[in-house]
Design brief:
Helices cover about 40% and strands about 20% of the residues. It has four helices and four strands.
């Protein structure tokens, strides 16, 4: 399963990827807006939006480039526990 995480804390990027790997997912993490982000998102199975730590421009860019098959989950907190709950509810272990 492929996961794209939009937002979150830069210092937690490695932790987000490790947690996704434990749940059998391949993760791409975008903590900051980059011009090439739209091309690099692709067609993930799950998109996680950490709404507290992300700009509106970044959310709009991410949502406009996602396909119809992608499940989008929004979370106000960007903690590992929050991501763990999202992955347990949406990813096969």
């Amino acid at each position: 399963m492929s996961v794209v995480i939009i937002g979150g804390n830069e210092c937690m990027e490695r932790e987000y990827k490790n947690l996704c790997r434990k749940h059998g997912c391949h993760a791409k993490v975008f903590c900051k807006f980059k011009n090439s982000m739209a091309d690099r998102i692709g067609q993930p199975d799950l998109m996680v939006l950490f709404t507290h730590t992300v700009s509106h421009k970044m959310v709009q860019n991410a949502l406009s480039n996602v396909g119809g098959q992608t499940t989008v989950v929004r979370s106000h907190t960007s903690s590992l526990q929050s991501l763990r709950q999202i992955l347990e509810g949406n990813a096969a272990v």
